Amino acid sequence: MTISVLRDRKLATFALIFNLREIILFSEVIFLVRYRDLLEFIDEIAPPHLESDWDNSGVQVNPDQENISKILIGLDPNLELIDQGVTREADLLLTHHPLIFSQLDNLNQGTLTGEKIFTLIQNEIGLISIHTPFDQSKRGLSQGLAEKLDLSSTRPLTNLMTNKLFKLEVFVPESDEDSVVKALTSAGAGKVGNYEESYYRLEAEGRFKPLETANPQRGQENKSESTKETRLDFLVDPKTKGRVISALKQSHPYEEPGFSLVETERPEPGVGLGRIGRWDSSRGTKEARSYVAEKLELDEDVVTVSGTLSSPVNWVASSPGSGGAVVKPAINSGVDLLITGELDYHERLEARERGLTVIEVGHYHSEKVFIPWTRDLLRERFPGDELRMEFHEEGI
Asked: Which end is more exposed in the chain, N or C (fewer Cβ atoms within 10 Å of the end residue's Cβ)?
């Protein structure tokens, strides 16, 4: 990717804006990149198929631009962030939480949502939100929080099963097996986690009878034939399905290749909500609370603890935002401590009664890592020697 840095303008700003109600956190990144390349990168770090049914992640307002020169990153698409986008002449806002959660029957400028959308459109500012897909992805928010808490040897707290994979089963004459396998694996078939060229093979016998209108590569018209074949089974990612099928048809010697493609599901390595990880040093209840406050740059009074650890722990579970969905997985995992944003009364009660100590830091504070974490991912994909970063704190 070629990036042109814009003259002498500051390339990154990280700001905290305080008001009476909340902390507004955002980061400004300036570069020149093709919009479609940016969308591809966002789909990579927050794959759309990981989106929860109730969510509405993705493009909220399309900037309709070929190139993007300035992005403003924020946790929420609130009025303060949108106003900053206007003031800073941003091309795009990238947020964690969506602006549009459900279908809009009409667009009314008199409503809060309508006001925000009209402001974005009038100032030619796009908006993309990466919510639940980013919560669960390999390099998403769950991983960002775990690393912020200094957890090592991390793995997902919940294993996400996906039915977005396909199983390709194809029969190939033995003599053509190698060439077909090479074509399919080159197109992306058989890529599983950290492995490539993964597939199963079984010996088989193919039988067929070409009709008069056929143009068989083997056999004769109106005569039953049999041939020694090999059955090959591959897993295929949806993104490469079309390319794989095209490669199959081009490389297979038969006029009508015998194959089937069915949806299947399997755990996605490294994907899932929350993380389990290890602290280098064991910590008891008080030490854990102080350490969490220090790592998240919080006043210790903000951090609440439910339950008491019976002994110091190394292995810890963490999950950003509302942690209700990970209480049972945390209990089943065998850890004694869960660090999360917030629980409701019944979730907290269940955790305590089942021996799980919970540290709650507040929804916002468990997710604020979104801004620097996403910014660093952007800089990693779109690097430049001139790229600098400045921090600016302003009180209102």
From this structure: C
Amino acid occupying residue 171? F
Q: Which of 97, 101, 103, 100 is nearest to 135 (CA)?
A: 97
Contacts with 237 (C-beta within 8 Å, 6 or more apart), sequence order:
165, 166, 188, 191
Give the number of domains in the chain. 3
Q: What is the pLDDT of residue 383?
A: 78
Residue 330 belongs to domain spanning = 151-159+272-366
142 within domain boundaries: no
* CATH code of the domain in which 346 resides: 3.40.1390.30
Lowest mean pLDDT among 133-137, 260-264, 305-309: 260-264
Q: What is the mean pLDDT of residues 306-311?
A: 96
Query: Can you read off the two tokens belonging to residue 191?
Result: 């890529």
- Tell me the pTM: 0.72
pLDDT at residue 218 tops 70: no
Residue 16 and residue 131 share a domain: yes
Contact 146, 137 (CB under 8 A): no
Q: How many CA atoms lie within 13 A of 125 on its CB side?
A: 27
In a domain, 2, yes or no: no
Tell me: pLDDT of 22 over 80: no
* CA dist list (Å): 135 to 112, 307, 323, 381: 26, 26, 12, 19
Above 50 in pLDDT, residue 73?
yes
- Stretch 365-376: mean pLDDT: 94
Residues 53 and 92 in one domain: yes
Whole-angstrom distance, CA of residue 370 vs CA of residue 137:
13
Type of residue at 138: K
For 365: left if phi > 0, alpha if psi spans -120 to 50, otherwise beta; the answer is alpha
3 state DSSP class of 321: strand
- Judge whether residue 389 has pLDDT over 60: no
Instruction: Give 2-11 pLDDT, tens digit per residue.
Output: 333 333 333 3
369 vs 147: CA distance, rounded Å: 10
Give pairs for 176-182: CB < 8 Å, separation 24+: 176/251, 176/252, 176/253, 177/201, 177/230, 177/232, 179/251, 180/232, 180/248, 180/251, 180/252, 181/232, 182/251
